Structures are given as C-alpha cells and as structure tokens.
Amino acid sequence: MRKIHKAILPVAGLGTRFLPATKVIPKEMLPVVDKPLIQYALEEAVNADIKEFIFITRHDKGSIENHFHKAIELEKELSTSGKQHLLDSINILSSDNISIQSVIQEKPLGLGHAVLCAKEAIGDEYFAVILPDDLINDGNRGCLRQMINVYEQRHNSIIAVENISPDDTDKYGIVSIDAMDRSTGRILNIVEKPKPEEAPSTLAVVGRYILSPQIFTFLEQTEKGAGGEIQLTDAISMLLNHEQVLAYEFEGKRYDCGSKLGYLQANVEYGLKDPELNKEFSDYLSKLTGN
Asked: C-alpha angle with apex 138: 183 to 184, nearest 5 degrees?
C-alpha cells in the first residue's frame, strides 16, 4: 500500500467575504492569533507525515508560497538577538524540510477544477486535499492524521464529515451513509448544497479529503454544476459507482474561518489556549462581558 505523501491546497479564491482586508492579503494569510491559516493547514499535514504540497493558486498570491521561504536577514537578526523561540517558529515549515509546488488556476471554476489542476503533480497515487478555511483542532493528532490512520486500515477514499444543523444543509455537500462504525461509514450518496427538506442527512462534507487518483477521470467528465462551477462533489458522486468511498466523522472542533464569525471564534478560542495570552486575555474577556 502506498503511503500518502502529497496534499493539494486550493488557495486561488478571491476572499470576497473578508474585503477590504483581502484586497491585497490572501485570506489564507489571515492570522489566527499569530499564525496564518495556511500554516495551520501545513502543520496539520506535516503531523500526518505529508511533506509535498501543491498550491492551486493565482498569479497575485505569491505571498503564500513566500511565507515558507527562508528569510535570511530576519533569521540573522533573531539569532543575534537570542530570540530562538521566534526563529524556531518561522523555520518549522521552511523550504528545507517541505516541498511546495504552485500551479496556477487560470479561471475560478470551483473546487473540482482546482483539484483537477493538480493532476500531473499528483500522478497515480492517493492524495490529500486540505481547505485552509476549515481550521480543525483536536488538541493532538490533527484531522488529517486521524483520516490517514483510517486509510492505512481500509485503503479507500475518505471524506471528513460533521453533523450540522438541518437548517444549514444548503451550505455544504451532504452525504448519506449505510451505517456508522467507529466514526466511519460507506457513502451511498452525496449531494451539493441541498435544501433542508431535500437533504439525505445532516452529515456535511468539510475541508479534508483523501482521494483516489481515479477522481481525476471523473473531474474531467464533470460539467459545471452548482454556482456555475465544476464541483468536486459531482465527481465524487461518479466515483461512488466504481469504488467505495468512506465518510469519517472526525474528532475535534472545526472553525469555519471562511466566515467572519467562525474566524473571530477561532481567534478568541485559540487566544484563550495560548500559554502567553490565556490569563490576561481571559481576564479581559471576563471584564468585557461582566462575568
């Protein structure tokens, strides 16, 4: 069985929900406390032994890749000043220990098209897809590590899911499964953003996937769907007719950092967990809320 050592990160979005902040700064570079979303995503992947990354990006988003390049002058200054902890923090994912390849997505044709753009870089092997907007904290392993543990046992495509409110099904891809066994079930059907009254369940697809290379065959056949985009959901629906695909209900808490509310929630909760901030920040919040 081949291990998974490549991950696709679609980062070509315009980030319109965070304008004007994202007019120049990619939304993936927005910080949660002191670390950009893209770094959380890569750290989660590296914790799952993935070190080859394919960024599906745009011409004007070079700052994302630059974030992982060595900064010689800054490193020299930190070293001279004896600020080793800061030096370590910027080198943990330097280009010395990970490989990053950027592929330009010329047109904004959706997540399915973004994944298809990485076909040549992936080749004939299973791979991961990580959406940095979904920040997932389980306090230890990371969502992708959990999924790879399942993959190493079952050797199937796997999609991360979570139970959501019935009122929110029109915001997600929704799956129906045969039964859930230890948080894992075989997917019977997957539908993109169904109305609540038409949803097959309340199990929503979130931004972590492990996919068979056969998905590229179906992405090439997929026509524009919801929103005029090539939907990854539609290609997965076709994949279901040829091989088993599993849903995995992950452990941990997901923050939807593609929304302002989810982003603010992540900053507050990660701030409360930060050992340098938690006491003062907790006291501040208590005073602010009158508790």
From this structure: 10
At 87, list the tokens.
């030096």
Read off the tokens for 234.
């539609």
The answer to whether the beta carbons of residues 214 and 245 sit under 8 Å apart is: no
Backbone angles phi, psi at 78, to 5 degrees: -65, -40
- Model pLDDT for residues 199-242, shown as the tens digit of each residue: 999 999 999 999 999 999 999 998 877 677 888 999 999 999 99
d(CA 189, CA 248) in angstroms, rounded, equals 14
Q: Residue 242 has what DSSP assignment?
A: T
Extract the tokens encoding 263: 């982003």
How buried is 119 (Cβ within 10 angstroms: 0-12 exposed, 13-18 middle, 19+ buried)? middle
Under 8 Å CB-to-CB from 115, ≥6 apart: which residues?
8, 10, 56, 129, 211, 215, 216, 219, 232
Q: What angle do CA 100, 13, 145 make, to 5 degrees?
A: 50
Residue 176's DSSP bridge partners are 189
Query: Which run of H or E residues covers position 247?
Result: strand 245-249
Q: What is the pTM of this model?
A: 0.92
Q: Does domain 6-258 have CATH number 3.30.70.1400?
A: no
| Per-residue pLDDT tens over the stretch 138-167 | 888 899 999 999 999 999 999 999 999 999
Find residue 102's DSSP bridge partners: 55
Q: What angle do CA 30, 170, 240 make, to 5 degrees?
A: 95
